Amino acid sequence: MRDMQLLIIDDEERFVKTTKALLERKGVRTHVATNGADAMQVFEKERVDVVVLDIKMPGLDGIETLRVIKKRYPLVEVIMLTGHASPETAVEGMSLGAFDYLMKPCDVEKLLEKAEAAYEKKSAQAEKARKEKIDKIISDPLEALKKG
Amino acid sequence: MDKQVRKMILVRVLLVPFLIVLAVYGTLVYYFSAYAARQVRAELVRVADDHRTLVDRFLEERVADLRFIVSSYDMETLQDPHRLTRIFRNLQTASNAFFDLGVFDAGGKHLAYVGPYDLTGKDYGQEPWFVAVRDKGIFISDEFLGYRNIPHFIIVMRKQEAGNDWYIRTTIDTFAFNDLVENIRIGKTGEAYLVNTKGVFQSDRRSGGRLMATDPDFDSYVLDRDAVSFFSIRPVDGKKFVYAAGPLKQAGWVMVVRQTAADAYADLTFAVIISLIMIIGGGAVVLVMGFVQASAIAGRLKLADMEKQQMKTQLVIAGKLAEVGEMSTGLAHEINNPLQVMKSELAMINEVVSDISDRHGGYDPKEFEVLNESILQIAIQIERCAKITQGLLRFARKSEIALQPVDIGTFIPEVVDMVEQRAGVENIRIIQELQDGVPPVMSDPNQLQQVFLNLFNNALYALKGKTGAEIRIRSLREGDDLVITVADNGCGIAPEDMEKIYLPFFTTKPVGQGTGLGLSTVYGIIEGLGGSITVESEVNAGTVFTIRLPIGRT
To answer: Would you kindly state where each structural domain of chain B is located, as residue ranges?
Structure first.
């Protein structure tokens, strides 16, 4: 799992900096962003497998960011990090495609555990998609060539 | 305060209408009395009038009888004793009031007489009656004694016969006449009698007054010339009389009818007294009942007031809790973020310290021990903060999650199991009295578990060190509600704390042992489930929490 790449999005600078340092000590490649726009920029430059996203208060851009990510990069798994764990937000997040959620304050170990589980899922999904593609090419090569 | 209310009700609702009714009643009684009095008066006047007419008629008839004789017979005939006697007997068949009969000459000498006395030959020329009849032709005398020395009155008539006047005279039987006058029944004390214009009795008066005596009260009589007058005079011998008196036409007498005022107005007085008794009696009953009612109403008002106060207090508590609830979500969130930063920084410190201690094995391990201790402590405290914010969030949560049917009969024993061991260790008995056949309630089992665990834990804490400690859990159905009580005989809750127990962060436990969020959470959960929770407690006696939950919410 060590080739997993993580992106932490949270507006607490100190938190993202220290968490990145802790994770990289453990050998996990970690990117950080303190807002939605910066996060999108990271996506364009790097390959991101799992996102840890701070939801903050309901109605602010945490959920919006989740929506955008899932729309543009549907295979990326998102773990919600929240300071107030209301069931409404959790349900909303899950329905929008979040993998799971964590309550603040959480241990780095717990965070890593969840991220690895998310990465596993992502890998399995990617594998499945690849297989489907190959099956398609085999069954109808002409179509596949046309689509390119 | 309720004395004032009572007084106000009494005055406004009771006294004023009562006084009005009293006034109406009083007016009625007054007018009725006046009317009745007039009736009494009219009656007495009528009786007097009728009676005087009776006597007048009698005298008229006697005069007519005499006139007949005088026009039928001449003096010669009448002087003959035998003839006179026969005529007299005839006269007596007409009326037995004729006592005797006499004939007189123009000078007043008694020529012939039939009667019990020996009066023939006597000379009456100077007698006042003779003088009067010589003048007037017909004369009815007052009662007088005369030669016979016995009270009597006479009717005399003059006959003018060819230049020679003669007179015929008859005595009217006093007894018969008296009877005629006296014989009348008016109430119990009513009597009739005759007086002349000077107040001398012309008949006996039943209640006291002999014939020919003078009526001592005559001067006070109010008499009219023709009509019957009605009057009363000042009390005589302690008795007050009412009079109806009217003059006779045939003689110069006055028919007087009188009755004691008490007797005359007896019926009226009776009616008025009955009315008064009824007013007073009825009024007393009304007053007493009114007083009782007013007290009851005042009491009810006071109770309603008290309930209103209680509800106000509850509203205030609920409001405060809601406010705190609003605050706490934001608060929890605000605190969780710094906690997260602290946690990650601490993790970093830990890593670096590990590195250093690994690298510099030669250094004094004890130094690192202290450092590691501190790091551990910080971690613990961060956890403690985290638990508090979590508790706060749980308390603030208003949502109803996953309602499902919960059978209290099996649910409670499960929760009791969780604390059974702890209770056993502290020698605390747990008694469960769960009513059979209670239908399940629609509820959230997790939240309910939280509620009961909290109550049980509180009870266990209150029973620390108590002998004969027990927790009694009861459940039963009351109408549409399920009622569950958790009672302990522990240290109880002080009265000044009762208002505060549901407030977040309020605790009587020593620092670090309780968050003070238990009952706040319980309150929020029960309210959120549509139920209610109340508590009764007495210091050193025990505490009872009563939870009501609606069965079968739709």
So the answer is: 2-60+184-264, 73-176, 268-396, 404-550
